[in-house]
Design brief:
438 residues; alpha/beta; UDP-n-acetylglucosamine1-carboxyvinyl-transferase, Chain; 4-stranded mixed β-sheet; binds uridine-diphosphate-2(N-acetylglucosaminyl) butyric acid
Length: 438
Amino acid sequence: MADKYRIQGGNQLKGEVFIGGAKNSVLKLMASAILAKGTTKIYNVPELTDVSIMLDVINGLGVKTFHDKEEKSVTIDATDITSITAQYEFVSKMRASFIILGALVSRCKEAIVALPGGCAIGERRVDFHIKGLEALGAKIKIENGYVHAKASKLVGTDIYLDIPSVGATENLMLASVLADGSTRIQNAAQEPEIIDLANFLNTMGADVVGAGTSEIVINGVKQEDLHAIEYTTIPDRIEAGTFMSAVAGTKGKAIIRNIYPAHLTFFTDKLIKMGANIKLIEPTAIEVSCKNRLNSVNFVTQPYPGFPTDLQSMAMVLLSTANGVGIITESLYENRFMQVQHLLRMGADIHQDRNHAIIKGIKRLTGATVAASDLRAGASLVVAGLMANGTTIVENLHHIDRGYEKFDEKIRALGGNIIRYSDDTTNEELRVQDGSRI
Ligand code: EPU
């Protein structure tokens, strides 16, 4: 049976929460591990369905993997690669698996990878990935829903991205690690996950310069220069921002640990403007608290270092009960307001016009049955449920499981009243969660 959350709103979140490794980094590091022969070990790996899907993709190449959930590590032995195909079965479940294209073309000079197609939040094309690979000398054929890329050799070149796409920047970084000469990616994405990938590759023996700026240069090295490594993933800034929102939205007070505060500067700044208190208490920990009703702000989602699209839905939930009117412009995706229809059912006053949303703050949301339509919209409905008056049921948790490790456990540890159940859950199992019954 499909799992659901039942949230009894109104508890202020208090205490401490420990943030896990960054989903959007670790998935790319796992794919990159196949560049070097030998056994690479990655630490700070969160237990997420997306991580399991990436392991399936890598196992499908004949590469041996081991996920130690206790240790939060994955081990990838890429000494031998026996297949160059990433099947639709996996790529269709998770777009991020398309990153295997650049890694395979680099290591094997050939790859057959299913085209991911669009998803709930937008069309999400991969044309920049393909054009960049062609510029590096790969011959590309699109056949039967698969990209077949082949290159007798890849040659470094200048690539200009029309928009700073995260996935295209990463795929092209991987494709050029073993190319002849230097590749210059202009208008590159600058996200912290790009820097993490460059650090990972450089530790492995690659020569990547400029990650974190709009121009990245990859000086090609030889296969024998690359070696297996041990590496620790950066913290998940979006999980951190989600908990910051939940604490501020419930007028709580909590310490968010294992984060890099600098990765959240823009989001933190908006929360402070709204009236939340945010204190740096250690280099990797902040304290978030909020006593009064938040004030409305306007913002536009932008590539890093701008306001992160992945936290847009959380901020919308906060605006839904803030003082005044806030306007959100979503500039990255065509369809990333999927939470709106559910927030309306919780009493919110939101008017959506294409990629703009006008949110008039009301005093309090009221609990309702709602459904996650995608990962971040789903997480925002959990935050809304924690803030609301009464009971909220959030359905379709498989979306949330893609990107939040033990979400309900972490919320319960902060005092939130949330339980996970399905129609098969016994009363005893519910009591183990928090002593309550459905
Ligand atoms: N785009 C194109 N052509 C391309 C590539 C991108 O038109 O070849 C467009 C997309 O359609 C989109 C925009 O460019 O409208 C931005 O896409 P980008 O390539 O930057 O995003 P991504 O790499 O597919 C990653 C994250 C997303 C996050 C975005 C933006 C991963 C696995 N995913 O996606 O995270 O929203 O960057 O920051 O890294 C999430 O975690 O919930 C999530 C969706």
